[in-house]
Write the structure tokens for this entry.
Amino acid sequence: MARMTDSMFFPPGKLPVGILERLIRTYPSTIHGVVVGASIGEDAAEIDFGEKYLLAKTDPITFVAEVEKNRLITTGGARPGDDILLTKAIAIEGTSIMAREKGEELAHWFGEEFLRRCRNLAEKPGISVLEDARIAMRDGRVHSMHDPTEGGLANALLEVAAAADVGLVVEEDRIPILDEYRVLCRHYGVDPLGFIASGSLLTMVEPSDSGKITRSLEEAGVPAASIGRITPKEGGVKIRSEGRIKDLPRFGRDEIAKILERAIR
């Protein structure tokens, strides 16, 4: 087995995807019964415990749960032809973090009311996606789910493609963006696609069920939009922007780090 012996130093944040892939290949799981182990885009381990699967997750919150075997949804389940749904809007967590970390500055530039709205996002709509997932599972054929966290929507979509061994095309003009977040991106000169975006859920669904799931979410007070489609791997991971299709950018570091670092220097 190959060994990783060179010393490597990385800035805070996610490991570069190439290094992570190398680690996973070098140290594969050998535990009997592991259905889903360490892999790109999969956020929890699934272990076969007989009648059910045991789920174990440690980042950012440690929990253990059970799931019926016919109800297990993984990031890697996306299929060519699936619609890509995004709940709520980006970037709920990133905007609330900015209100906490740079509140005085935001109040100076945009006023106390703007700051209050940004702060309140942590509570309403909040960053839980449990209800989003429950409704989607109840009302349609869901093949894959993934939550955009560090590295934003772009990195989450890239992780879906890597986990499922597929391509995708996302339509930039369909991506719902919070008004407050749009203001922050313009002010600080950062890319909206690369900002920590917990609070939204990516759901890859059977296209004929897309409308029903979206309507059910909306009726429950959870905004949702179809932002693209899963394609064969050969097509790559793309975004259509202003009529042009180009590669979806990958963010080695979350865009919020750029802003917070400026305050330290």
Remarks:
- Residues 17-72 form one domain.
- The first strand starts at residue 34 and ends at 36.
- Residues 152-164 form the longest helix (13 residues).
- The chain has two domains: 17-72, 76-264.
